[in-house]
Every structure is written in structure tokens, then in C-alpha cells.
């Protein structure tokens, strides 16, 4: 069995400094985690072999453009926990919902350098990873689906760590 073999029951790890794997690039210490591939209305994310630090130039490259950074890239940033509307107090609600509403895809966990510090993996285990490539940050359809899981929950913010 390889390290990346899909196992939705893979034990979540205990780490202290965790990262949100679907964040805004303007957050401190953010990383480019992957690239967004679009095919019509469908989007998928290819995780980079080596995530790279977001620089001022990364953000400036999109200044004045109608294309948002999140249209092209997936970013990761340190999880702000109580600073994020998606934090329940002990868990990320987005990760909880993703494993409920999205199908598991693929037969192996995607290769991912973030895994040892990823909040979604720490919380939901391999089930999160098997859905992760389907997540495009700021995708209105996905956001609506996530909000429909628990109508009473706080709507997803776009300027805080958005765990989508
Ligand atoms: S959910 Fe899994 S695949 Fe996605 S960023 Fe976290 S560790 Fe990587």
C-alpha cells in the first residue's frame, strides 16, 4: 500500500499550526497550493508538487483585472480559527460539509505537501483529500451548496480564510 492510497478512514493527525487549504492570497504567509483547471462550468484543482509563497507580485499581477486570483489558483494560509466565520469553535464547518456534499473522486489520495499541517485533513482525514481537488475558492455554486447543508449557519465570507 502506498502512502497516497485512498483511505477515507485515515486517522486525522494532531498538529498545532494548521493551514486552511482554500484561503485568500491576501492573508499573511499564504501559499499557492494549486492551479484551477476549467472545463465549461466544471472546475478542478491540480495541486502543485511544491507550493510556493504568495508574494506582493502575485497579487499585483491581478490588479485591475476582472480575473480574480482564485479564478486561477488555490491558496492556503494559516487557519485563523476564531477569526474565521467558518470556525465552529473547534472545527472547520466547511470541511465538515464538503465531505457530506461532494463525491469522493479518484482511487488514491492526491499527492499533497500541505497534508501534515492541513486543517481539513486533520479534521476529516482522507475523506477531505478525496474531495479537495473539486474545490475552487469563491465558486458561487459550491458556496450555495455548502450553505444549503445548514441554512442556519453563517454565510461564507470572502475576505476571511474561506475554507471552500
Ligand atoms: S484536504 Fe488533503 S489534499 Fe486537500 S490540501 Fe488538505 S491534505 Fe492536501
Can you put this structure into words, describing what you see?
The chain is an alpha+beta fold and 164 residues long. It has one domain (19-149). Helix content is 23%, strand content 20%. It contains six helices and four strands, in the order βββααβαααα. A four-stranded antiparallel β-sheet has the order 1-4-2-3. Strand 2 and strand 3 form a beta hairpin. The longest helix is centred in the C-terminal third of the chain and has 10 residues, at 140-149. Bound molecules: iron/sulfur cluster.
Can you list the strand order of the major beta sheet? 1-4-2-3
Kindly report the average pLDDT value. Answer: 86
Roughly how much helix do the residues carry, as a percent range? 10-25%
How many distinct domains? Answer: 1
**What percent of residues are in strands?**
15-25%
Q: Main sheet, how many strands, which sense, barrel?
A: 4 strands, antiparallel
Structural class: alpha+beta
Basic shape: globular
The number of helical runs is 6
Rg over CA atoms: 15 Å
Order of helices and strands: EEEHHEHHHH
List how many beta strands DSSP finds.
4
Bound molecules: iron/sulfur cluster
Give the low-pLDDT segments: 151-164
Termini separation comes to 30 Å
Amino acid at each position: 500500500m502506498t502512502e497516497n492510497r485512498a483511505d477515507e478512514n485515515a486517522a486525522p493527525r494532531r498538529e498545532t499550526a494548521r493551514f486552511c487549504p482554500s484561503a485568500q492570497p491576501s492573508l499573511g504567509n499564504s501559499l499557492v497550493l494549486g492551479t484551477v483547471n476549467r472545463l465549461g462550468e466544471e472546475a478542478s484543482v491540480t495541486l502543485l508538487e511544491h507550493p510556493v509563497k504568495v508574494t506582493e507580485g502575485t497579487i499585483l499581477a491581478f490588479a485591475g483585472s476582472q480575473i480574480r486570483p482564485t479564478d486561477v489558483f488555490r491558496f492556503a494560509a494559516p487557519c485563523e480559527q476564531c477569526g474565521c466565520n467558518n470556525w465552529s469553535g473547534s472545527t472547520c464547518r466547511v470541511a465538515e460539509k464538503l465531505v457530506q456534499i461532494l463525491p469522493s473522486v479518484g482511487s488514491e489520495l492526491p499527492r499533497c505537501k500541505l497534508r501534515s499541517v492541513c486543517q481539513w485533513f486533520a479534521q476529516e482525514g482522507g475523506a477531505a483529500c478525496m474531495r479537495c481537488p473539486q474545490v475552487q475558492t469563491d465558486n458561487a455554486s459550491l458556496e450555495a451548496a455548502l450553505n444549503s447543508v445548514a441554512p442556519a449557519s453563517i454565510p461564507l465570507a470572502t475576505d476571511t480564510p474561506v475554507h471552500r
